[in-house]
Design goal:
- Helix 1 links the parallel strand 1 and strand 2.
- The protein contains 5 helices and 6 strands; from the N terminus they run E-H-E-E-E-E-H-E-H-H-H.
- It is 32% helix and 12% strand.
- The N terminus and C terminus are likely disordered.
- It is of the alpha/beta class.
- The longest helix has 25 residues.
- It is globular.
- The relative contact order is 0.15.
């Protein structure tokens, strides 16, 4: 099966301390999962609003969404000199973000014209800014997920109780819009990916010192988020409420 690369070859490689990583799944090349991933046909058009920093993070799950779903689209945001975007697909636009006043997504939303599901892909602050600032989010109806099982991610610190990774949020949303089979197949692929990523991080396969490595990675993420926030303050856009 042939997959369209998520990242053009001229973009920087995925950040992983010098270890070559697959640009499709973010795993070390010898553990690449892309060839085993299903390609799922869905009516819902999923559009990821991916922060530029996420493109090079090995723990990003949005790239797996793009691999798994037919018609999924990745739109990069947060760039200093953003490129013009093509129009969004036709359909009813829903923005998956738990903002005040957002209503719960339900199977009834799948009726009528196809849904264009906009999903912020980044950390909590980046997702909030996408909701308030991204031009594709303007006019989209905010929706949130009903309460469900806790996250099975574990590769990053959760910003709050009940937080999900991008893939988990999309899988749960499509479970409502497309049926349980789509959610199940997405989560099966996710569990295998998390297992492999955790093994790389904790077994010392790539280098020694699991605890020290995890602490360094968390510190590195905090430094990147601080730098990103400083840059974002200098970019044009309305202030967050």
């Amino acid at each position: 099966m042939t997959f369209v690369p998520l990242q053009p070859p001229d973009l920087p490689p995925i950040r992983a301390r010098g270890t070559p990583r697959c640009r499709g799944c973010g795993l070390p090349q010898e553990m690449c999962l892309c060839g085993a991933l299903p390609r799922l046909s869905v009516r819902t058009r999923v559009v990821l609003l991916t922060h530029r920093i996420e493109r090079t993070r090995s723990t990003n799950t949005g790239r797996l969404v793009a691999r798994l779903l037919e018609g999924a689209e990745v739109r990069v945001r947060g760039e200093v000199a953003p490129q013009p975007r093509s129009p969004l697909p036709e359909g009813r636009r829903l923005m998956l973000f738990p903002s005040p006043g957002a209503r719960a997504l339900s199977p009834d939303d799948a009726r009528g014209e196809p849904v264009v599901l906009l999903v912020p892909d980044g950390n909590w602050n980046q997702a909030r800014r996408a909701f308030h600032r991204d031009p594709d989010a303007r006019g989209a109806e905010p929706v949130t997920l009903p309460e469900g099982a806790p996250s099975r991610y574990g590769l990053r610190r959760a910003p709050h109780e009940g937080a999900l990774s991008t893939l988990e949020a999309v899988a749960r949303a499509l479970g409502l819009l497309e049926g349980a089979a789509v959610e199940r197949r997405m989560m099966e692929a996710f569990d295998v990916w998390v297992h492999r990523a955790t093994c790389v991080r904790l077994t010392g396969k790539l280098d020694a010192g699991a605890a020290a490595r995890r602490e360094e990675e968390e510190e590195e993420e905090e430094e990147e988020e601080g730098a990103e926030a400083a840059l974002d303050r200098d970019l044009p856009g309305p202030e967050d409420p």
